Amino acid sequence: MTDPTIESSKLRRQALNVLFGIALTLALTGGCSNNSETDPTNTAATSGESNAEISAETKTTGDDTIRNATTETKTAASEKTPPPLSREERLDAVLELQTQNKHDQAAKILQGLIIEDPTDYVAVFHLANSTAAQGNLRDAVELLAGIPPSDPDSGLPALGVSADWCMQLEQFDQAEEKYRKILQLMPEFNIARRRLAYLLNRQGRRHEANALIRELCKAGDVTQEELYSLIVESDAMYDPPGEAPVDGANPYWPIGPLAEARQLFTLQRYAQAADLIQPLIDSGGASQAAVAFCGLMLAESQQDDRFVQWLRQTSDETKEFPEYWAALGIHLARETRYEESIGAFAQALRGDPSDHRSVRRMILGFRSVAEPTSAEAFTKRFQTLNRVITLSNQIATADGSQAKAMAELADALEQMGRRLEATMWRSLVAVQSPNRDKDLQALNQTLRRLVADDLAFPSLEERLCGVDMKDFPLPEFELPTIGPPDGPVLSPPFLAKDFPQPELNTQAIFRNIAAEIGLQHRYQVAASEQTKAFAIYQQLGGGVAVLDFDLDGWCDLYFAQGDADPPQFVARQSDQLYRHLANVLANKSQHRLVDATDLAGLHDQQYTIGVSAGDWNQDGFPDLVTSNMGVNRLYINQGDGTFVSQALDAQRDLQRCPSSLAIGDVTGDHLPDIVAVNYVRDSEVTRKPSLNSNGYVDVGLSPLEFQAGQDQLYKSSPDGQWVLSTLGDTEETAKQGLGVVVTGLDDQRGNEILVGNDAVQNQLWSRLPTGDWVDRSIARGCAFGARGLATAAMGIAVGDLDRSGTVDFHITNFSDEPVSLYLQEGGTFRDLCIRFGLVDDSVPLVGFGTQPLDFNNDGWLDLVIANGHVDDLGSADKPFRQRLQLFANAGSRFELIDVAEDPYWSQPHSGRALAMLDFDRDGRQDFVVTNLLESSSLLLNETVQANHWIKIGLVGTNSERDAIGARVTITSGARQWSHWVTSGDGYLCKNESEMHVGLGDTAAIDHIDVQWPDGTTQTFQDIPIDQKVLLIQGQPTFQLQ
């Protein structure tokens, strides 16, 4: 191998345009030759006409024709017969004819030479050139195939030219074979290496291509676009077919399904990518690179059943590709097999240190096994990789000199041990330097040293961030039994049950009735009108609680209100209690809401964010709790339409920004406690973002800019008082909490506390027998999202979302990240948002409140989401106001569906809290939503459908009265529906306390089984449907309501 050097030309792009024949001949001979016999590579191609004919019998006639083509015509007076032309003279004449585009004449001469000597491969080479010039590339390739590669003059040039022609003919397998043959015979010939890398990149075979490009780097012969290809080795090199790059670079038009699939992967369309590759694998025509890549797509798209089938189609050769190990790591992490997943990701990084996705998942893995030092090492690596990607994108898209960015990029690459890449980027900086020659000379010396000392690329220790992996060996993966090895892919387990699958043929109809019923609440984020540049506490909006405070059977509403400014946060307006007055007529019910705040004694002048309801003192009347800038408050319902206020905190805390609340027994004493989630606690909590020159915020304030708040627990005492404590007692347990749900999330007695945290891991608190709290979110698989990252985690919707008989939950997130869909199996949660089709429609939006609302009573929980950005960025791409969404449950997926035209639903809003209720008691679930900068709304469900339903209220006697955490199972024949009594209910809200169950076409219920929070079970039979029933612990019969 020749000494590597760095060329002073900017990109060396001209190397790609050198004809193979010329280059190979020069490489073979060490320079140019005037001997036409050893210069078979003049590929000048033109066409012309001649009357000359060449045959074995008339060779002298052919000689005369050659002379006529190359010398002056002899005079007719000359009677002397000229001597025959030599082979060299005839080849010179051929070259002249080709220069004149007279390829038909040249071909006749060459045919004569080949007849004389079939092994005259120089003549064969030139004949192939003339044949190609006349438009017969396939014949030309066949001619060159007759030249043995071992021929010293024409063998390698024939391979090179033939490979190029195969590319033109789209005979890509043949082209690859010929390029590889050249490199086998002449390993130092970099033009063949470059062209093969270009072909492989266009085919989506990125790791194979980059192995070749790294060799070009070692030779100091690499283009800028090739350096780009090394930044993230797994991402596509892609240009839309037929669309030429604007900068004149080589077009990376895709060749084959793997290239198209890799572009889909880059766009995070994993399922589509897998579907493109799978037929290739099934036909046996896929490369092992494609097989490995398909596994990664199946793992990313969460198709576990197909993933297992894919594993059966892999081989030891597949394991040579890093994407095989990345796929295995994703699958194992989703199964909470974290130690094994770390081993798999480590193997992926051994092969591809640019794999930022695996680096990110290593962080999750090490956090999950309580290895904070290792997690921090990979966190720094992830940050450096992100910086590299950002800088390379800047260089690729910006105009003008990017010398500074290139220098920064080189430094970042050097930090990761990618020294040779760094050197090559510095060479691009050097050519723009006034000391170019001196700088390039020094870089050449660096390059030679790196190559000689085997320091060009990251060592194993550098690839793994210096972390010792001895405790994380490669996983031993046993294939589960899912059908025969070659059998069909089976459906998810829940689809095997006797449930009729949902038919998405019902038109959803919701109508905003706020104005007609007198709902006039509008949440104010400040004492005067403010439309943007929100402080962190203002971004949250205000909550809403559904309760029947007067026990008249109709849902009332309690709304939070802000309307205050720092530093004292004394509000002009109070929170509002709306009493629901209904007049039930023969054919129609009349409904209106009246403001009962003052009459109920609920006037309070604090900045309120979260609200909730529950029976704190167990007297049968729902009480209220609010979270405020200052002091959290408990309002005890006196049973006469009034409330008595009690301060939960001893003193005001104006640095604390609280969020959601829940009332329910979490300590196992059958008395309700209060869980208060806090967002941040920081002296700069009132800081506002600056505006740009256009008067808008560039980026809304992030919670990570502030100190996190410790979540609080107000543990109830038998005397009605409480003891204040915290969930977790260390700085690490303080998180930026938003949503909360309290219920039984496993098959053990006692409630858990699920907290959705913003930009940091979620928490799932369980209480130990000692009374201590432990966060089991990592062990249970719900700490992070599907991509292995912490998410924004605002709203939480809890229910049996897949009809598997276990409790699941859906979490809304920020824009540019999908919602999360945590489905439970065997006590472990897995975020299967990708598999269930929730990604594309959720990624553009910022989701807040969400609920599991069965809009058509078909028995499958659907999802309704309130969306809206945290601030007004003045951007059409990231609008402040965003539309509501309704995702219909189709069994194995969720589909975003249209709602019948309604002025509210068809317009965007700045949605925040969202709570469920059956406002008009017609057996259809409605919901109420709060907004920023506009009035709150109540969406009445008017969907036309004939499905059945039941509404169930529970009253605990040995358990707390609200029976938070009770599990209700409804059975009808082979069908079952499972529901849980919850509190908190997600983001700043409380749903109607009775559970609503859609029954589909089920005409009768066999029995209802209740597992009460104290662990006792009870069965109720002969239950009517299409009405509300009350089930009381310890009483054998139900009550109609």
TrEMBL record:
Q: Where are the TPR repeats?
A: 322-355
Q: Does the keyword Membrane apply?
A: no
Q: Which organism is it from?
A: Stieleria varia
* Biased segments, Low complexity type: 69-80
Please give the residue ranges the record annotates as the region Disordered.
Answer: 30-87
Sorted alphabetically, which PANTHER family does this protein's record hold? Answer: CARTILAGE ACIDIC PROTEIN 1 (PTHR16026:SF0)
Task: Write down what this protein is called.
Answer: ASPIC and UnbV
Report domain ASPIC/UnbV positions. 963-1029
PROSITE patterns xref list: TPR (PS50005)
Q: Where is the composition biased (Polar residues)?
A: 31-59
Keywords, A to Z?
Signal, TPR repeat
Report whether RNA-binding shows up as a keyword of the record.
no
